[in-house]
Amino acid sequence: MKLSALRVALRIARRDALKAKGRSALVIAMVALPVLGVTGADIVHQSGSLTPAERVERLMGGADALVSAHHPGRSVEQAPFAEDGVLVLPEARSDPAAAPAAAAAANSAELLGGLLPSASVLLPVTPGPEVSASTREGLFTTSTAEADLTDPVWSGRLDLVEGRAPAARNEAAVTRAFLDEAGLRLGDSTTVKGLEQTPFLLTGVVEHPGELKKVELVARPGQVISPLAAAAAAAPDAPGGPIAGGRDDGVRTERWLVRLPAGAGLDWTAVQKLNRYGFTVTSRAVALDPPPTSAVPYNASRWSAPDSEADTRKVVLVTVVGMALLEVTLLAGPAFAVGARRSRRQLALVGAAGGHRGHIRAIVLGGGLVLGLAGAALGVVLGTGLVAALRPWLEGAGGSRFGHFAIAPLDLLAIAAVGVLTALAAAVLPAVQAARRDVVAGLTGRDTVNTPSRLLPVVGLLLVGAGTALALYGAGTYQSGTAPLIGGLNKRALSVLAGAATAEVGILFFTPMLIALFGRLAGRLPLGPRLALRDSARHRGRTAPAVAAVMAAVAGAVAVGVYSTGTEAQERASYRPAAPLGAVVLDAPTAPGSPETVRLRRAVEQALPNLGTRADVQAVTYVFCDNCSSTVQAKGAGVRLEYGNAGSRVLSGDTTVLHNLFGVRDRAAEEALAAGRAVVFDRAFVNDGRATLTMQGAAGGPVLPGQVPGTERIEVPVEAVLVENPDAARYGAVLMGPEAVRKAGLTPRPNGSVWRPEVAPDRKAQQRAEAAVAQLAPHAQLAVERGYQSKGDMNTLALGGFAVVVVLGAAAVATGLAAADSRNDRATLAAVGAPPRMNRIQAGLQCTLIAGIGAVLGTVSGFVPALGLLRSHASGQIGAPAVPFAAPWGLLLLITVVLPVVAGLGAAAFSRGRLPLARRAG
Asked: What is the chain's Cα-based Rg?
């Protein structure tokens, strides 16, 4: 085609776009939305990718280097950024010239000071332990650190964003996450467990630019780490000891910020010198001017596995973007088809004036090019503006500050080009159809109705069968050791994906036939539904793509929903509660009647009023020598003995334990306990009125001094009464009275207390009680049994929301196009006396039909990958339990029933009832 003819085609397409403003705005919006999303994602990714200078600032602030005592006494090799990788060498390679000074150094800091230029300043950045700090409701766990925030060297690594820097010894700064979780604000005080005598006044809010969600308390140097260590050394077993207040990670790697004297620097040679003594160094000078790859020994020695997780994320991202573009193509295609049909007289005039089919195709494709360019440009501009406007929220949600606001022009051009190509792809089929249309039919304004192909349903049936078989076969094949093929996905995963896609394409081939079948049923319906069905069946080229768009979105939501529901059902079935629902459990293995035990129980009952009667639970143990004991378990038919298995454990207690822990109120069981007999809750653990207790240790009595304890397994039979109760058997197999335990030669040991309040305490009350318990006994634990807690599934929620948007959007788009396409028919109905509600009924039923067929087909096709995923989960590991099939009925009801009805009612409500009469062509 000549360039002049192309210019004419584009001019005609531009005029048509301006003439049909509503349809053009619809196509532009559909193209702009995915371009907007991908543009925003690209800018966020580029802005979050730090430059070397930005990375250096976050690591060391205003210092010249960050040094770590990675492995003292050994030599190491490292990348220019030590955080990118370190390799510990099997032997030390110290410098002979510095060997005397290294031998004389008392610690790592002194050794480092001798290796650095004189007058260098070392600022420790070793993190403190995790501790318990006071909140408005009780205690919670927080990280600790020490820093002099009045020194500008910390700026960039640890920024003061609100308030003032701590200046006195009892002042501290905290992160925003600390204040949010503790319910405190600046000016309040908090107490660190172990340092109760020196509460900290909160004077400022700090943030780690790369860890915005970190919960941390930052005190002045020497105010947290050393006092906690001294308190732990002075009273290591004290209930209020500092280590009990949180978690100490043991030996922590020493790290320093290094400030060099004026004119000094740490080049790559100096870094390698420090590596010989086990230090790793990230030097500002080296990071900004890295050495060549050949000069870094670490590069030759390292081995790195492929990052399959990152590859998988890329595949998921590409898949999501591809699905979005597919939805645009499916929804925008009918818009171009309607536009071509509305312009059929104009296109026919082009043909009558000597234009060939290429010219007609160029005009329709020109519409795709014009609208694609407008949509892509709008998407890029809006995406950039939204990221700029939402930058603080995006940084907070991602937990990291942007290094800078980065715009990659080539990336944005590529994204815009994909948007334009998507619009062109959507216009290809309408362009081909318009070029094939008969010129005489176009001049008279008449369209021919094509009968549906009989071959497509057969091909679709074959594809559905082949796709289902491929997905199920691939999912059931154990291939966890297979190397990834594409994007970190192995053959099994690819088989499931390919099978699901094949089955979905097969179901798509059924769509025209189903729409035609619905059209045949129209004769038995009233006028409004009859017109709606016949119009949808007559214009299958407009209806089928909208149904396909709904089906694709619903299939993904159903697949993930079925899989998530199945895995959650498996987790719920395998959940083992520690006590009956609503019970309050105090796990405190202390001596009965001791002052500490009394204080603990009193603290719980004061913090949680109306708990009811307390039950004191005891574990049954076999003691055969000083400091020699073993746990007693019940031996049952077909029951495997495993340490920690609650289903076979033996407990001791009175009737309150029977009521509170086991939830059993049975007169026979109470009488058996009073008579000194054991109560068994599972038939597998009793035989001829006796239960067998098994333990491991020395047989034949206590071990005498000097003897080596035996390790043989011992069995002791006891009289038992069966009170079969599957619920009670989850908490223990056998319950014995304390006297019965002693008669059997065993020892009851305290294991805590259980309360059964009428109403379970709320979480704030539980937090207060936990704080009271933690202050009295560091190793005691308080819990409220709330049953299985659903974790929720953001993927299911997100895909469900996406399906809702696509179902409503596709139905609305198709209905709007149908209304525009059948404007003359609707005007004729009005002319012959049809009431206004007839147009609304027709629009509502068309919308319901499209949404309903697409939702049903999408639900059916979504079960194929769901079954494959469930089977894959069961066969992915040897011995893995089968995942039960559990349909998300709420999601299915929403998608297949509620949404089509809502879409139809909305279309009926917003459709115009009265139309101006129009003169029909021909």
From this structure: 37
